[in-house]
């Protein structure tokens, strides 16, 4: 049975990330940043990556990383989700890093681990782990041409790991973002950016071909989906906690609104759902760390936590009443993040379909 | 053909909509009693049953007849007009109903306050009698379309020494008064449809009071019941609501289809159709009098289906669902949801279960007033408002 509790080391890690985020990235700062031309907090990202060494958690020590596992990354993501922190951790430290690790890269990984560089994975953010290998970019004479829509964290990435199709089939390349065309999309999630990527005869560094390329991509997407569940969990927990606080302090009819059973039961249900989200997310992180039962654990966590995060954000908004509908209140940042994340790295339906095969419950 | 249909036809023959001046046309329609046929003669109506209004509206729409600006309808038609009709004096009918119908004068609703939302009866805005006027001080919030409004329906406290429901009075407030300050309040959609309204020594003539002094709660109930019916029991053709938008996307974009989404869409379609029929039945049953608590059920269901459909729509979009059309801050004059993107609808419909009474409050109303279940224990109903804990 996988270990579902947090270790002391993980709790310490959480405390240091939470401290930093509450100091440097309170929601007021996150909200204020959304409409500036710097939607990401790159100074915060640098601190997380270099001072706390979080960019290299998944990277082995011999490549300059921390040699930690998906379990620690999950803890970091829970905290980032709780704060809807505008940093490219998912794109760089999870998606690109996992692809590079699986493809055996030794060149860019030390740079990412050290926090010197930022990268992302060149797939449409909605791509599920079991999707067919993308064929929108082609390789001719070592040059890449094509378009990939809605790539996460591309705005601030210097490198992008691009799946492409060459003469002999799937290939994985590292491309410098400066050689590509990047068109930002106005996002529903104000705290996480997506952009379209266009490559017009751009040269790349070949990372892997054939089965190795396919496996590296699938591994990155599986890790991404399993760990996004942790971020969704953290988001749901923030929604639950802040709504419970509000229910204790908001008075109507001469009572705290939390004294109405209608509200109590809703929050009790949300607590139960969040507790289960925690368990599934921990199971997925453990599975990714040990390599055991990865397929089922990730599919369950992704399918479950996506919906719980949306539920939590929607309940938070509703139970705050009119104030929850206002821009100057943080709940909409969480709602946008939750709804977008539900589409990301495979919808719950996609993950359930993947599960159906794995557990032999065919349609 | 019914009498009423013949009347509409004769009116349209006499006033061809094509090229007509909208205001003149709407004035004539009001004068002919075809504004709200269930209102009495002389007040824009013909004393017909309420249910007849739907066919009349349909006939005018089919003829391409001019309509009032959208902002005039939400609060003016749905809330202010029936309240003025029920509690207003003949002079007030005469003064307010016609320009309300034509849209020359837009209305807003000054009810909610920062401390009094669901518990509206605790509101603190004070109205103090001064000769023939009342002097009003206080703060209102979430006031939709206040930035476009000429008049407001206002509830204020006229007697703080009696229990909260008893010390309220209901007024018509001039939004052009120098003491009225309207500030935009931005919504999660990026827009500011609603506002904060500060009332600073606003003078309201006693002639602009609706109902007796101290009867404000009863008058406000009429407004709220009408609001809920207006929101929940509006006439709609099949696929008329947001489900129609989702269905259109489904038909036009085969590449978005998945088995799971298909099943969900069909479930939502059935739910939307069931609600449409429920609303239709509710409307057919509405006699000339005031709508009852059943309207609350229609409004509750309206919020539920809108949120379910718009959430589905974002998911149906797939990659496109990650995008948002435009976060620009504006102060709109209508909520035209169909022409916006799914992300906007997703965010905006979140307000449906809050505005006009939250879904939790509506459930309480159904439980207590339709089903007759006992009320939750109340500690504040018999205490003088000024002595309530705050
Ligand atoms: C888009 C929008 C437009 C609006 N337009 C207007 C307008 O034009 N004019 C106007 O006057 N107001 C307007 N409102 C305000 C609206 O009527 C109030 O927001 C609403 O009544 C809820 O009040 P509140 O925001 O204070 O929430 P609260 O009353 O504080 O409610 C907070 C939460 O507690 C729950 N709750 C409260 N009491 C109970 C109870 N007894 N049992 C169970 N649950 C309970 C509520 O359901 C809610 O989930 C608008 C609101 C919105 C969102």
UniProtKB/TrEMBL annotation, chain A:
Origin superkingdom: Bacteria
Record InterPro entries: AcylCo_DH-like_C (IPR036250), AcylCo_DH/oxidase_C (IPR009075), AcylCoA_DH/ox_N (IPR013786), AcylCoA_DH/ox_N_sf (IPR037069), AcylCoA_DH/oxidase_NM_dom_sf (IPR009100)
Domain Acyl-CoA dehydrogenase/oxidase C-terminal, residue spans: 218-356
Ranges where the Acyl-CoA dehydrogenase/oxidase N-terminal domain occurs: 8-108
Gene3D superfamilies: Acyl-CoA dehydrogenase/oxidase, N-terminal domain, Butyryl-CoA Dehydrogenase, subunit A, domain 3
Similarity comment: Belongs to the acyl-CoA dehydrogenase family.
Protein name (database record): Acyl-CoA dehydrogenase
TrEMBL record, chain B:
InterPro entries reported for this sequence: Acyl-CoA_Oxase/DH_mid-dom (IPR006091), Acyl-CoA_Oxase/DH_mid-dom_sf (IPR046373), AcylCo_DH-like_C (IPR036250), AcylCo_DH/oxidase_C (IPR009075), AcylCoA_DH/ox_N (IPR013786), AcylCoA_DH/ox_N_sf (IPR037069), AcylCoA_DH/oxidase_NM_dom_sf (IPR009100), Mycobact_Acyl-CoA_DH (IPR052161)
Domain Acyl-CoA dehydrogenase/oxidase C-terminal: 214-371
Superkingdom of origin organism: Bacteria
Family, as annotated: Belongs to the acyl-CoA dehydrogenase family.
Pfam families: Acyl-CoA_dh_1 (PF00441), Acyl-CoA_dh_M (PF02770), Acyl-CoA_dh_N (PF02771)
PANTHER family assigned: ACYL-COA DEHYDROGENASE, ACYL-COA DEHYDROGENASE FADE34
Domain Acyl-CoA dehydrogenase/oxidase N-terminal stretches: 7-104
Keywords on record: FAD, Flavoprotein, Oxidoreductase
Required cofactor(s): FAD
Domain Acyl-CoA oxidase/dehydrogenase middle, chain residue ranges per copy: 108-196
Organism: Kutzneria albida DSM 43870
The name this protein goes by in its record: Acyl-CoA dehydrogenase
Cited Gene3D superfamilies: Acyl-CoA dehydrogenase/oxidase, N-terminal domain, Butyryl-CoA Dehydrogenase, subunit A, domain 2, Butyryl-CoA Dehydrogenase, subunit A, domain 3
This protein's record includes keyword Oxidoreductase: yes
Chain ranges passing through the membrane: none
Gene Ontology CC annotation, any one: plasma membrane
Coiled coil: none
GO molecular function, one term: oxidoreductase activity, acting on the CH-CH group of donors
């Amino acid at each position: 049975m996988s270990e579902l509790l947090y270790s002391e080391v993980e709790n310490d890690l959480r405390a240091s990330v939470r401290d930093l985020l509450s100091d440097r990235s309170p929601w007021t700062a996150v909200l204020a940043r959304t409409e500036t031309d710097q939607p990401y907090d790159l100074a915060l990202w640098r601190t997380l990556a270099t001072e706390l060494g979080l960019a290299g958690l998944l990277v082995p020590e011999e490549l300059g990383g921390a040699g930690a596992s998906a379990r620690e990354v999950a803890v970091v993501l829970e905290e980032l989700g709780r704060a809807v922190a505008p940093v490219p951790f998912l794109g760089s430290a999870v998606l690109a890093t996992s692809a590079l690790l699986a493809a055996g890269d030794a060149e860019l990984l030390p740079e990412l681990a050290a926090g010197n560089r930022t990268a992302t994975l060149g797939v449409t953010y909605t791509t599920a782990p079991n999707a067919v290998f993308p064929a929108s970019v082609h390789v001719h004479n070592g040059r890449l041409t094509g378009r990939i829509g809605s790539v996460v964290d591309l705005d601030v990435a210097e490198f992008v790991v691009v799946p492409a199709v060459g003469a002999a089939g799937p290939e994985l390349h590292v491309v410098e973002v400066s050689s590509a065309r990047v068109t930002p999309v106005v996002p529903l999630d104000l705290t996480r950016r997506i952009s379209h990527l266009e490559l017009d005869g751009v040269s790349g560094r070949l990372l892997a071909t054939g089965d190795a390329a396919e496996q590296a991509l699938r591994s990155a997407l599986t890790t991404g989906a399993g760990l996004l569940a942790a971020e969704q969990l953290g988001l749901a927990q923030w929604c639950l906690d802040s709504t419970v606080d509000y229910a204790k302090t908001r008075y109507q009819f001469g009572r705290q609104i939390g004294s109405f059973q209608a509200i109590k039961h809703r929050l009790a249900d949300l607590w139960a759902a969040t507790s289960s989200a925690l368990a599934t997310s921990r199971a997925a992180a453990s599975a990714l760390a040990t390599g055991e039962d990865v397929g089922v654990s990730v599919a369950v966590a992704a399918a479950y936590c996506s919906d719980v995060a949306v539920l939590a954000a929607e309940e938070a908004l509703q139970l705050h009443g009119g104030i929850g509908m206002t821009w100057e209140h943080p709940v909409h940042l969480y709602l946008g993040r939750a709804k977008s994340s539900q589409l990301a790295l495979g919808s719950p339906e996609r993950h359930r379909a993947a599960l159906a095969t794995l557990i032999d419950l065919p349609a | 053909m019914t009498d009423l249909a013949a009347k509409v036809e004769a009116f349209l023959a006499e006033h061809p909509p094509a090229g007509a001046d909208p205001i003149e046309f709407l004035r004539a329609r009001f004068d002919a009693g075809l504004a709200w046929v269930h209102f009495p003669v002389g007040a824009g109506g013909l004393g017909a049953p309420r249910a007849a209004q739907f066919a009349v509206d349909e006939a005018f729409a089919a003829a391409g007849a001019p309509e009032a600006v959208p902002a005039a309808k939400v609060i003016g038609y749905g809330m202010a007009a029936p309240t003025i009709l029920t509690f207003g004096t003949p002079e007030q009918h005469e003064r307010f109903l016609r320009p309300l119908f034509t849209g020359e004068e837009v209305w807003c609703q000054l009810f909610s306050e920062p401390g009094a939302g669901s518990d509206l009866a605790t509101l603190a805005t004070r109205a103090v009698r001064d000769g023939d006027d009342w002097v009003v001080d206080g703060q209102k919030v979430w006031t939709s379309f206040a930035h476009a409004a000429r008049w407001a329906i206002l509830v204020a406290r006229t007697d703080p020494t009696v229990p909260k429901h008893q010390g309220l009075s209901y007024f018509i407030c001039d939004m052009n008064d120098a003491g009225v300050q309207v500030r935009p309040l931005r919504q999660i959609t990026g827009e500011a449809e609603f506002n904060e309204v500060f009332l600073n020594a606003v003078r309201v003539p006693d002639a602009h009071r609706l109902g007796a002094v101290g009867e404000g709660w009863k008058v406000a109930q009429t407004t709220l019941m009408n609001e809920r019916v207006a929101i929940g029991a509006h006439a709609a053709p099949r696929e008329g609501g947001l489900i129609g938008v989702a269905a259109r996307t489904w038909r036009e974009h085969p590449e978005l289809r998945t088995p799971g989404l298909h099943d969900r869409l069909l479930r939502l379609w059935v739910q939307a159709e069931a609600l449409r029929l429920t609303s239709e039945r509710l409307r057919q049953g509405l006699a000339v009098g005031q709508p009852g608590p059943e309207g609350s059920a229609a409004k509750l269901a309206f919020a539920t289906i809108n949120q379910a459909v718009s959430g589905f729509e974002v998911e149906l979009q797939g990659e496109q669902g990650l995008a948002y059309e435009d976060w620009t801050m504006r102060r709109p004059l209508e909520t035209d949801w169909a022409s916006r993107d799914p992300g906007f609808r997703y965010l905006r419909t979140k307000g449906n279960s809050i505005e006009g009474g939250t879904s939790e409050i509506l459930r309480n109303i159904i439980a207590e007033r339709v089903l007759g279940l006992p009320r939750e224990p109340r500690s504040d109903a018999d205490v003088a408002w000024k002595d309530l804990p705050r």
